[in-house]
Design brief:
With 445 residues, the chain is of the alpha/beta class. The protein is built from 16 helices and 16 strands. The chain starts with 11 loop residues before the first helix and ends with a helix.
């Protein structure tokens, strides 16, 4: 059998980059057709490739690098929302490896074989990984999913404003709130000329506060479970922040309309606001293009830094036809030398798009973050969070990104509006999260 590799002209990640834009559907279809042709020509032979399903475009480049250095070949099949693609369709060739977010569900043992086979002599070592990330992908003490990458929440600010935060590494919600209060400035008419940071400016920040204060969103039922009392406390905390620091949500939105109409990456150049909320991936995607010298602090809940929910993991599919060959790819992928080559290859291309780290985030391999990342990303030297600082999310359903976007976020946007004591809108009845869940269920089912 001829060894086939998915090839892309000049810039492999450039092709898949279009998956993120308007051509995503067409490009994804084309990639799947190419993969199907290659798989059809290989199926049944002793030289069949390792079939990888993933929704991470970066793996196009990683697979190409693997194929260039190994006799065993791998083929990438792009699956938009790979966690919802299992099990495969009846006439579809099953994957050997599945890589993506939202794989840690109650069906983990139904979809994946134990990953314990990848550890041991001449293979991977568990102490190379963040222990709590390995635990995240485990069930009954056995690893089923290997963590690939993760992202962290951060507040970004102009370096000249670093004095507003005491710690040089982290910022708690209360510190951000206090710095906002000190920075914000209104004129004699009560119109704000400066505003540090308003919770209503960023929907993802609303969610971060809700999650950080114990709302405990988790897999369960037809949608998800949550802690009602903690969610109510989070909503009240956000409303209190707005009322005490800015008077009302309307004042926050008026300020945003007047001064922060450019993309978020350009807000800080106006000098009128103090913070922008971003993830680590977003910060290192825009930082090089910013016209302002920027710095950041990881956002802490007090007990630690909560990881973004969409942790990327890798699993060996339970009906794999190539477990041994898949193991070769797995062992290669998690080596420090391999991940160094992946990052050097990407940065050496000098593309006009920015991507962060390994599969869009920090590596799950501790030494890669500590020794390699600071060489590629300024500001990370001495600023890689320690393992004990990382707080893992609850187990979440495979459709959680949809639930978050269409149920939780709309609820928070509505219920976190603070109108001020003299406004009758304050007493307006608002829908509960259960109401939003019920509305979604009626539409979806």
């Amino acid at each position: 059998m001829t060894a086939f590799t998915l090839r892309f002209t000049r810039r492999p990640t450039g092709f898949l980059n279009r998956l993120k834009g308007k051509g995503r559907g067409l490009a994804a279809c084309l990639l799947c057709v190419l993969s199907a042709c290659l798989l059809a020509s290989c199926s049944g032979g002793q030289d069949s490739p390792v079939v990888i399903w993933s929704d991470r475009a970066e793996f196009a480049s990683y697979v190409e690098l693997f194929n260039a250095t190994h006799d065993i070949k791998a083929v990438l099949v792009y699956k938009d929302g790979v966690s919802r693609s299992l099990p495969p369709a009846r006439d579809e060739m099953p994957p050997d490896l599945v890589i993506g977010s939202w794989l840690k569900t109650s069906s983990i043992r139904k979809n994946f074989l134990s990953a314990e086979r990848f550890f041991g002599k001449n293979n991977l070592h568990k102490d190379a990984f963040y222990g709590n990330l390995l635990e995240y992908g485990s069930y009954n003490g056995k690893s089923y999913l290997l963590p690939v990458s993760f992202n962290l929440p951060a507040v970004v600010f102009a370096e000249e404003n670093s004095s507003y935060l005491d710690d040089s590494h982290i910022a708690s919600l209360s510190q951000i709130r206090e710095a906002d209060k000190v920075f914000s400035l209104a004129d004699d008419k009560g119109v704000y000329q400066k505003m540090g940071f308003a919770p209503s400016w960023d929907r993802d920040f609303l969610y971060l506060v809700a999650k950080s204060m114990g709302s405990a969103f988790a897999e369960g039922g037809s949608t998800f479970l949550y802690d009602r009392a903690s969610l109510e406390s989070a909503v009240n905390y956000i409303k209190e922040w707005t009322l005490l620091n800015h008077g009302s949500s309307s004042a926050e939105q008026d300020f945003k309309f007047s001064y922060l109409y450019r993309p978020e990456s350009k807000w800080l150049s106006t000098g009128r606001n103090l913070f922008v909320y971003m993830t680590s991936c977003e910060f290192y995607t825009i930082n090089e293009d910013s016209d302002t010298s920027l710095s950041f602090r990881w956002v802490s809940t007090g007990s630690g830094i909560p990881l973004e929910d969409d942790i990327v993991c890798m699993g060996l599919y339970r009906k794999t036809k190539n477990p041994g060959k898949a193991g070769v790819f797995v062992n290669w992928f998690f080596q420090e030398a391999s991940q160094k080559a992946m990052m050097e290859r990407y940065h050496g291309m000098e593309l006009d798009t920015q991507e962060f780290g390994i599969a869009g985030g920090f590596s799950s391999v501790k030494l890669v973050n500590e020794s390699l990342f600071p060489a590629f990303y300024h500001g990370l030297l001495g600023n890689i969070p320690m393992e004990e600082q990382l707080i893992l999310p609850e187990d979440l359903p495979s459709r959680y990104s949809i639930f978050k976007e269409r149920i939780i976020i709309p609820f928070l946007v509505e219920n976190c509006q603070a109108s001020g004591a003299d406004n009758a809108e304050q007493d307006k009845a608002r829908k509960s999260l259960d109401d939003y869940i019920a509305d979604w269920s009626r539409q979806a089912f």
